[in-house]
Amino acid sequence: MTIRETMELLERTNLSPYATLSENSRGRDREEAQCDIRPVFQRDRDRILHCKSFRRLMHKTQVFLAPKGDHYRTRLTHTLEVSQNARTIAKALRLNEDLIETIALGHDLGHTPFGHAGEHVLNEICEDGFKHNEQSVRVVEKLEKDGVGLNLTWEVRDGILNHQTSLMPATLEGKVVRLSDKIAYINHDIDDAIRARVLREEDIPMEYREVLGNTTRNRLNTFIHNIITNSQGKNDICMSQEVAHAMQGLRGFMFKSVYTNPVAKGEEKRAMELVERLFYYYMEHIEKLPEHYYKMLGEGEKKERVVCDYIAGMTDQYAIAKFEEIFVPKAWQVNK
After folding, report:
1. How large is the angle between the packed helices 241-254 and 216-231, nearest 10 degrees?
2. How many C-beta neighbours within 10 Å does residue 14 have?
3. Which CATH code of 1.10.3210.10, 2.30.110.10, 2.60.120.560, 3.60.20.30 fits the domain covering 3-8+36-265?
4. CA torsion, ordered 297, 276, 290, 119, to nearest 10 deg
5. Sign of torsion over alpha carbons 275, 123, 266, 56
6. Alpha helix (H) ranges present in 62-96?
7. Which tens digits make up the pLDDT trace of 204-224?
8. 161-193 confidence digits (pLDDT tens)
9. What is the reported pTM?
């Protein structure tokens, strides 16, 4: 018996009857020989962790655009917080931690520079629209490894695609990540907003604080305990009605107070204009795309989609640098 087979046996023995077992995966689009050490979801996690798109998350905006301070969240730290919240829930419910961690690490790989501002622009100007969850799947299926993709299992791709509020994953592990994503961004965005002096704790309506707690730590504790308590022994992941209602109310409060706050989001308009100008520049100068993107045109990909692929993969700093390179005049100098 290989190490992988021993680990699969441990899953069968120890995990919940509602958990997704590695050995029962629907598999990959392209068949591969099994690893002798790692079950399939652990193998997928390693592929995401080592890919270029994952590393770029460290330089992509979460909420505050290019903040001057070391302690504000980025898209990468958000991803890690989602992963940790989800793993805590998974361990308590005896679900598949490897699958949960993999979905969490991959769920935002397709996010644009400048957060949802960049996503909004591309969705408006690209003929077929743009959604970061769909782009995340495109990253792992098509864009990584110069067009080969990561060839991840069906369950991981399903969880990445369906982590949005309006969607629902097929596995309990995917459902855990879906809720953990919301818990993470609501909590850490409050923390960042307080740090940025855009918000004070006492500004949060008392009706939500009475249910969820008066600190970021207490609210996180409430959310996680409530999900575990209400999901134990069930083939579902759920919250109590009271906590779910408070979470939705708090999310709505954050949209009004932070996500559309002119102080917090004052640079977004310029960031959106930057993304738009880059898009139209590359549409008119498609030959300027890096070779592996340009090659996709010969494989039948639409020009708009390939340009979106390139821009969506940019970090904030890289997008700014490309904009300056293309549009900002350079100081004239005599060639020596």
Report:
1. 140
2. 9
3. 1.10.3210.10
4. -80
5. negative
6. 75-93
7. 999 999 999 999 999 999 999
8. 999 988 999 999 999 999 999 999 999 999 989
9. 0.95
